Amino acid sequence: MTYYERNLPHWHPEGTSVFVTWTLHGAYDKFRTHPRNADPGKAFAELDKCLDQVSVGPTWLKIPEIAQCVEDAIQFGDRQLGLYMLIAYVIMSNHVHIVIQPKTTLPRITKSSKGFTARKCNELLGRTGERFWQDESYDHWARTDRELQKIIAHVERNPVRAGLVSSIEGWLWSSASTKYNTGKNACGTQS
Asked: Strands 84-91 and 95-102: what pairing?
């Protein structure tokens, strides 16, 4: 088992699925200001609710080209780089949730995915030398198969809870999207 601390504790038992959340830089600083002795799960639930309300900070991920860049990178990490097996994901306007089965260390995964997308998305936005993602990501390993199924449902229902769509299949930037359920990619061709 790997363990390290930054502002949050990070436990990564080998062979377990991991739920990871990245937020845009400036979307919410709760991770850095939450007391160390507070329950990280409760702190995350509070953060997730605030992120869904999009009450502060940037919302670049609602720009289709930016969301597509992030989605492509998530899938590239699975299919081409083999860093993980992608189980579920959703891209919201200011944060990303992924559920993965890591094949390497989580710091390597996040550095690869966040580093590439930060450079590419900043380029698309015409920004140079600006921070794109919050430094630290939230992660939680699934203790049981039942918990894993609850996490997947949480991730894919995020746009419904946020009031953006009425069904999980209706959100374009998600593993539950109809574009994947019909075997078509974002361009409408067979994948």
From this structure: antiparallel
Q: How far apart are CA 88 and CA 174, in angstroms?
A: 8
DSSP SS3 for 183: coil
Q: What is the pLDDT of residues 12-29, one digit of tens each?
A: 567 789 999 998 998 765
Rounded Cα gap, residues 112 and 10, in angstroms: 18
Rg value, the chain, Cα? 16
Spatial separation of the C-alpha atoms in residues 165 and 10, rounded to whole Å: 32
Name residues of the chain where pLDDT drops below 70.
Answer: 1-13, 28-56, 178-191
> Would you state the pLDDT for residue 7?
58
Q: Number of C-alpha atoms within 13 angstroms, CB side, residue 97?
A: 24
Length of the chain: 191
Rounded CA-CA distance 21/96 in Å is 6
Domains and CATH numbers, the chain: 2-166 (3.30.70.1290)
The set of long-range contacts for 54-59, using a CB threshold of 8 Å and a minimum separation of 24, is: 54/93, 54/94, 56/26, 56/27, 56/28, 57/24, 57/26, 57/27, 57/28, 57/94, 58/24, 58/25, 58/26, 58/27, 58/94, 59/24, 59/93, 59/94
Neighbouring residues of 6: CB distance < 8 A, sequence distance ≥ 6: 135, 136
